[in-house]
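Propose amino acids for all 212 sites.
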C-alpha cells in the first residue's frame, strides 16, 4: 500500500476543493475550449496533466524541493514563465483573423495548445511549490513505502482527478460555447481572445510573489 487509507478521505476532499478553485490552469483550458472547440480543450487538458506528471516525478525524487529552496531559481522560473506567456500572447494577437482555423481542421492547433499548457504550468513556480508543500502533508509514517513512493502515488491520483475534472470542464464549456464557435464574428477574433488570455496569465505569474 502506497497511500494511507486513513488519510485518503481527507486527501480526496482536499483535492476536490482545490480543483474547484479557479486558477491559471482552469482559465487556459476553459478559454481554449471556448475559442477553438472541445478537441483543443482536451489536448490542453492532457498538456496540463503531462506537466503535473513531470512535477510529481520531480517532487518524488526531491528535485523540486531543491529548486523551491533556491530563491534565485524560483525567480528565474517566474520570469521565464511570464516571458513565455507574453510571447504566446503576442503571437496570438498579431495573428490575422484569416489565420483562425476551421473547426473541422484543428489538429495542429490542438498539438500547439498541448505544448503551451505543458510549458505554462512547468514554468509557473507556484505549481512547483504546490507539489513540494502539498503532497508531503499526506505522507504517512505508518506505511512501509518510502516518502518518495507515497508522493508519487499521491501525485498520480491528483493528476488523474485533475484530468477528469478538466475533461468535464471542457465538455461543459463545449456545450455552452457552441453558439460562439458557430459565430463567424467570434471566430474572426478568437486568436485575439486567446492572446488576451495568455497576457492575463503572464501578468498573473509576473505579479505574484513567490516565497520559498
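Proposal:
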Amino acid at each position: 500500500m502506497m497511500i494511507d487509507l486513513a488519510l485518503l478521505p481527507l486527501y480526496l476532499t482536499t483535492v476536490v476543493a482545490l480543483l474547484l478553485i479557479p486558477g491559471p490552469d482552469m482559465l487556459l483550458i476553459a478559454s481554449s475550449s471556448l475559442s477553438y472547440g472541445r478537441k483543443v480543450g482536451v489536448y490542453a487538458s492532457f498538456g496540463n496533466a503531462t506537466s503535473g506528471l513531470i512535477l510529481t516525478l520531480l517532487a518524488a525524487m526531491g528535485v523540486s524541493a531543491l529548486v523551491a529552496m533556491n530563491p534565485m531559481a524560483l525567480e528565474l522560473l517566474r520570469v521565464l514563465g511570464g516571458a513565455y506567456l507574453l510571447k504566446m500572447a503576442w503571437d496570438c494577437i498579431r495573428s490575422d483573423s484569416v489565420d483562425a482555423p476551421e473547426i473541422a481542421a484543428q489538429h495542429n492547433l490542438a498539438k500547439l495548445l498541448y505544448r503551451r499548457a505543458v510549458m505554462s504550468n512547468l514554468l509557473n513556480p507556484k505549481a512547483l511549490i504546490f507539489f513540494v508543500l502539498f503532497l508531503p502533508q499526506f505522507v504517512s509514517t505508518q506505511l512501509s513505502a518510502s516518502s518518495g513512493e507515497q508522493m508519487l502515488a499521491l501525485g498520480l491520483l491528483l493528476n488523474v482527478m485533475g484530468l477528469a475534472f478538466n475533461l468535464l470542464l471542457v465538455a461543459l464549456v463545449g456545450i455552452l460555447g457552441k453558439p460562439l464557435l458557430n459565430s463567424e464574428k467570434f471566430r474572426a477574433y478568437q486568436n485575439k481572445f486567446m492572446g488576451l488570455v495568455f497576457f492575463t496569465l503572464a501578468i498573473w505569474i509576473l505579479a505574484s510573489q513567490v516565497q520559498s
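The chain has a mean pLDDT of 83. DSSP finds eleven helices and no strands in the chain.
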